[in-house]
Structure formats: structure tokens, C-alpha cells
User: What shape does this take?
Amino acid sequence: MGVIFSFTIAVAASLLVFIDPGSQLYHFENKIIDARYRFYAAASPHTDDFVILNISEESLKRLEKVYGRWPWPRSVHGEVVEYLKADGAKAIGFDIIFSERRQEVDSRLINELQAFARNADIPEVRSELLSRLDSLKAGTDDRRFVSAVENAGNVFQSTVFYVDENDLLNKSGHEADASSASQIKSILAKSAIPIPPYNYSKPYFNATIPFPELAAVSRGTGHINIHPDMDGINRRASPFLYFREREKAYPSLSLVIAAHLKNIPLDSITINNDKMFIGDSAMPLLSDGSVRIRYQGGKIATDNTGKETYQSFYQYVPYEYILASIDLLRAGRIPPLPNGTFKDKVVLVSASAVGLTDLKPTPFSPVTPGIEIHANIIDNILSNRFLFTPNSTYEKGYIIALTAAVAAVGHFAGPYVGFLFFIGFTGSVTGIHWWLFGKGIIFPIVSSVIAMTATYLGVVLLKYILEQREKSFIKTAFGHYVAPAVLDNILKSPDKLKLGGEKRYMTVLFSDIEGFTTLSEQLSPEEVGYILNEYLSHMVQCITRTRGTLDKFIGDAVMAIWNAPAEQEKHAALACETALLMMKELDYLREKWEKEKRPLLNARMGINSGDMVVGNMGSREIFDYTVLGSEVNTAARLEPLNKDFGTRIIVSEATRMNAEKSDNGKFLFRHLARVILKGRSSYLEVHELIGFRNDIDRTTLGLVEEFENGLDLFIDARFDDAKACFQKALEIKSDDKPSKTYMSLCDYYKENPPSEGFEGTYIQKSK
Assistant: This one.
């Protein structure tokens, strides 16, 4: 029931995040996204291919004396286009809409001035005046600009779409004439893309477009619509928009320029599986057809006054530098821009002056020139570097999976482990999400962290409520035979305790005092009680030290179990460690008793691992927590087997394998025998647990090697060779009783050869 409640909390926390009342998480998430933008700001492989030709406040001030107030004569832009084309610009894009035809200079006035110039007395002056007036006459209207654009062949114009037919403001903030639908479609037809309506893309009903003559000679026309998020920050852009009936898609200025640079026909652009394919570039689309801008960004510089300013990675060139270069070149002087400044560059003309309304808030600055947005999108397409946002369904499923993981660990793990997992897991998820942004993938940080935190706190509270019901009973029922550390573990996770019997793979240890019955007959009851209590106290301390559970005392015998009631992965290794600790404590007690002139005790131990039935056995009123099964009986038979071989600790093959699997190399075992235990028909591989490997000297290792070589030969019925190995073992340690035992067996079988099918088994004699 607790598990169901925990996962219910996880789902509830996820739903709370999905609903996001008041959109607070949405705004916070965007702030974290902006932080990631700034953290990963770096130039792309194509950043140096861009030059932004900027009309700034300073540009307006410097050129006002020459061209008057903005807007300047169109012939000025024509001169700039001619210069850029001559200097080798790869593409020229105007983030300025030239929507109306203009008559800039009165032709009649120019004719009159030319008549006066012809009467000039100085020939040089007369020639220069006539030349200048001819040039001015050529640009009396938009012809100079149109002609320059046509000759360049790589100039792109801008348009703006409007949802409301009455919402018509051009780039300079003045009212613009609404264009007819037919005129808009006709002028923009060259750049239209035959893409069917995409998901939730909304239609637009009017537009401000370039005047027809300019649009006709331009390489293409694209929209410059920008769609800020709810907080006003521009993180998305629309690579295409639909007009009225949504018959065709109209691309953005950045998309048109990028397709030109990649030599991709616009009508070859397709959409498949929420991606727009521009040649080899696959741009991931959101549900409304917009795309996340993967800003290259810039750096924050600090001036002498301590004021921070944003510096783009793109190269900015003041507009007036072009015009100054043109004039200086005419005069035969050195221009401010060297030849080749714009060679193979993408030149984007921007009007970033405050009064021209092209400053946009971005993750980097609240007054970022709008042209930067278009430059970044072109850069993204050329570099094939985009930001991918998982589908909303996938994102929700992902958050539910995260909360489910937190709920599972929070429910099953202890408070410290659960807390450390929560901190580590939450930190890892945050770090991975932050890292993935640098790889172009946006995973939510705020939503994920909030959902996981709410889940963890909810599960902790639930566990506290449920556990309080169990603690009183458990303390009463188990406090007298379970180690304190194990009891604490049970109290932390009471659901792990199953009342009644359950099958579990465990390890059990039996320990018995050698000859205690005879000893007790020789001593007074008080002396027996003193020695036994001291012995048992030290043995129990060893058991509890390794988080074992004392099953029971059987007279002077001790029975202990591991992996119940609390689960212990290394239960076999813990039992082996306990046995060695018990022998060490016994050696200490023997030294103490010798000084006290008391009788000296010896103990033998048997350890086995296997499937057993464990639980509270008995009635509801009187019960005992114990283990049952044949594997328990095997452990009980192993303890007296030590008498046959003169050993102290014998373990089964299952115990040895499990101990070495969990703690490889920690213990030194000696393969002792293939023994047929009392009450069994098949043999069992048994081993002597000698000690901790790090404590073993080379002599003992040599003894074990010779003994095991002899045992292998004995099993193969090569008794002479086996006896030789056992003899070598005795030369290493003259009182090695297992070697003596097998020496005798070798002599016996030499005189009494075994029958065919001999397997080297030993039949247990001890009881």
C-alpha cells in the first residue's frame, strides 16, 4: 500500500508542475534557459562570415548634415549595394522595409542647375558640377537603388506580416498602407514555399511589403516577424508564416538568405517529422511552426566606469564607413575600410538607432539589435546547429519517470541514503540538463527539480506517518534477539519485515564449545555460569558488529543468521568475517582465562548458505523469529565435522562462492573435502576458513597449495602422488591435522583399493 501511495505522490507532483498555476514555473524556466544561453555563448564556425552594417544613433547624427533627417534618399542605399557587390559580398539582406515609392529630388531643379553649371568659367569646376548633377539626376527617384539591387543579384528584402488588418505599422513607426491580398501574394510569390498548413500555425491577414519594382529585382523577400515569449524575451523565431488561406508558406528573411547561401531552391524545402529540411540542415520545429534560436551570443564587457555592455561575436561596421569609403575612393584617398572587407561575407543591413525601433530584448541584452536574431538563425542553418526541444508528451513522460525514480528510492531506501540519492540525483539531472543545452537539447531544469523535490518531501512525510505505526510493535517483538544496527534498519524500513515465514537466500552460522559437557561436570555451577556468560557475551558482540541476527542460544551453542530480517547483499562474507572475529575473541579470552587460572575453552563453527524459510514461527501470543530448512541442518552438521579434520571453521561451497563473489580475495579458504554429511546421500564440497588473506604468511599459503594439490590427486585415486603432497604439507606444518587425516586415508585405500566410480568422498564420522 505504501508503494502505491508513493507513486501516487510522484504523479501528483508531476501534474502540479504540468498545470503550473500562474505560469510561475514557466517564467523561472525561461530565466534558467537564459542563463544557459549566456553560459554557452561562443562563436560558431560561420560567425566570421557575417558583417552587420549598422545604422546607429551615431550614424544618424553624422549623416544628417549630408542627407538630412531619416529616411535618407534611396540612392544612398543604392551606392552602398554597389560598393558591397564590388567588394565581393556573398549576400546582402536589408532589415529595413522600403514599402513606398519615393521622389527624392525635383528633376526640373536639377535641369536648371545643369544650365547654370554649363556657364561656369572654370572648365574643371564646370565638368565636376555637371558630373555630380548627372549622378544626382540618376538617383532622383528609386531607380538608383533598384538598379543597384538588380545588378547585384544577391540582395534580399524584408516584409512584415500582421494578424489584424488594422495593425499596420512599418519599421519607422508610421502608418503604412494596407496592401491587397492579391498584391501581397504577387510580390511575395517568388519566395513562397509549397508547404501545407503546419500544426498550430496561425494565418496572417495583411503585410507591409517592399514596393513592387524593388521586390521584382531582389533575389528574394522574407518576413522579419519576431515572436517574443510571454516575458517579452525573444527566444523563438518563425522560419515561415502563412497568409490568409494558408495556401503556401512564406519564409523568413533568414531562411531565404540561408537557402541562397546553401544553394538550395526554396521549393525544395520540406517538412517531415517536425523538422524543416534545408538541404542537409534539419531544423527542429515547435508545434506552432516556430524554432528555438540557438544564439551564438557575445561577451559582457565592462568599461572604465564599471558599466557592463554587451558585445556581439558578429562584426559590426557603421553604415557611414561605407559612404565615407565611397567618397574617399572617388577622391583618390585611402578609405577607412580596406578592399576585401566584405569579400565572401553575408552583409546584413540593420537600423539599430533607438528611434528606428529595431532593438529587441534577448537573453543577452534588453536592447539587442533585431538583426542579430536574423544573423543567428542564418548561422544556425549554415552550421546545422539547432536547439531541440522534446515533444510535450515526451517531456511529461520524462518528468513522471524522474519523479517515479525519486519516489521508488525515497520509499525503499533509508533516510540518509534516500536524501543523498535525492541530492545526488537532482544535482545530476540538473547538471546533465545544463550540459545537454550545450549539445543543442533543451530539457527542463526548473520543472524537473520542483517535481522531484515535491515528490521526495511527500514520500518522506508518507513514510514517517506509516512507519510510526510499525515501530512500537517491532521494538517489542525483535529488540531482544536482533542486533541494534539491524533493528534500526528494520525500523527505517518496516515494510521489509514479513510476519510469518518467507523463503529467502541466507547464511547461517553454528558455533559450539568443544567438550563443554565434560567441563561443566568438573566445575561448580557458578564457575560454569561465569565462563559461559563471558564467552557468549563476546560472541554476540562479534555477531552484532557485522549486523548479524542472533537466532538463539542452544545451551553453549550459538546460532546466528544474516540477510534477515534486513536484507544484506554480502551476507556470506559477513558470516565468514564474524567467525574469524569470534575466534579472535576466543583467543583473547583464553589468554585472559589462563592468567586467571580458569579452564580454557575451544570452539568449532560451521557456516552454510542457501534457501531457507525465515520468519516469526509459533502462535500470535508466543513466537520465535528463526530459520528452518535443510540448509540450516547442513550448517548444523558442518560444525561437528571439525572434529574429523581437526579444524576450527568449516564452510560450505555455497558460502565460499558467495563470500568470494562479494569480497574477492578477502578470505583464505582451503578445499577440505567432498564429504557425505550425516543424513545425506550425496557429497558436499566443504572448505576450511583459515583467516583474512592479508593476515596470512607465505608458509601458510604454501601449505594450502600443497594440500589442495594432494586433495586433487586423492580424488583422482592417485594415492601415492597424493600422499607425497600431504607429506610436503606436513613438512611445512607438522601438526596439520587435515594432512594427517588424508595420509591415513591414502594408506587405507592403497591396501583397500576403492571400487570403480570412486569420487574421493569422505563420510562424516562425528556427531
Q: What stands out?
A: The first strand starts at residue 50 and ends at 55. Residues 167-178 have pLDDT under 50 and may be disordered. The chain has 24 helices and 28 strands. The radius of gyration is 45 Å.
